[in-house]
Amino acid sequence: MEVDDIIYLKDGRIYMKPYLKEYDITDHIQTLVDELEKMKR
Questions:
Q1: pLDDT tens digits for range 1-41
Q2: Which branch of life, at top level (predicted)?
């Protein structure tokens, strides 16, 4: 299975589908990006 099959964009949101269930992880990714930005300062 390719990474592109597991994490992908749909309707402007980021989704992860590790098995049969699809998860919207956009908010979680945004939180991680915000935390990384804080660490860069």
A1: 677 778 888 998 989 998 889 999 999 999 999 999 998 87
A2: Bacteria
Distances (CA, A) of 36 to 11, 15, 30, 39: 25, 20, 10, 5
The answer to whether the CB of 29 falls within 8 A of the CB of 37 is no
pTM exceeds cut of 0.85 = no
The C-alpha angle with vertex 22 and arms to 11 and 4, in degrees rounded to 5, equals: 70
Q: Where are the domains of the chain?
A: 3-40
